[in-house]
Amino acid sequence: MSQEGFDKLVAELRQLENVELPRVREAIAEARDKGDLSENFEYHAAKREQSRLLGRIRFKQRVLENARVLDTSLLRRDGIGLLSRVEITNLANNARMSYTIVSPHEANLREGKISIKSPIAQALLNKKAGDVVAVRVPAGMLNLRIEKLSDATQ
After folding, report:
1. Measured between alpha carbons, how far is residue 146 from residues 7, 105, 107, 125 in Å?
2. pLDDT at site 65
3. Cα separation, 141 vs 32, whole angstroms
4. Are the C-beta atoms of 84 and 118 separated by less than 8 Å?
């Protein structure tokens, strides 16, 4: 994973542990003070929220335990790979797209980051600028031309 993705994950975990979880625990305490818990909707909703938050915290902790921050100086630069920024054109409609290929935990389409495990990234791996690749996606086949390739760390 990139250093940026690692730092973002650590920040999210701290937010969950130091802000969200105490807020939910306070809501549980307030709801408990209202009396009968068997019919107390606020109490049950707060407990469900606490359970959801604890699950997210555990998941993010496991991801961080197993994460490795990549040394970008060791990455191959002779073709598309992890942390490559690639500009492609869909040959069917001439739409241009720009993506950075990242680890699955960093993928975010709004930020233009696609998972290395996605069908498009898998088809682009080890290719070079000028190559045309056919990609099977859920909507059918796409023919993509690689216009430009650069290192995402630049």
Report:
1. 30, 25, 20, 11
2. 87
3. 56
4. no
3-state secondary structure 104-147: CCCCEHHHCEEECCCHHHHHHCCCCCCCEEEEEECCEEEEEEEE
User: 72-88 pLDDT, tens per residue?
Assistant: 666 666 778 888 889 99
What is the radius of gyration, based on Cα positions, of the chain?
22
Q: State the Cα–Cα distance between residues 151 and 53, nearest whole angstrom.
A: 36
Distance CA(110)–CA(104), nearest Å, equals 14
Structural tokens at position 93:
């409609």
Distance between CA atoms of 114 and 120, rounded to whole angstroms? 8
Tell me if 121 sits within 8 A of 104, measured CB to CB: no
Amino acid occupying residue 112: G
Identify whether the C-beta of residue 145 lies closer than 8 Å to the C-beta of residue 79. no
What's the predicted TM-score (pTM) here? Answer: 0.67
* Residue count of the chain: 154
What sections of the chain are H helices per DSSP?
3-15, 21-32, 41-66, 119-124
Closest of 59, 55, 60 to residue 10, by C-alpha: 60
Structure-token pair, residue 26: 């306070």
In this structure, which amino acid lies at residue 29?
A
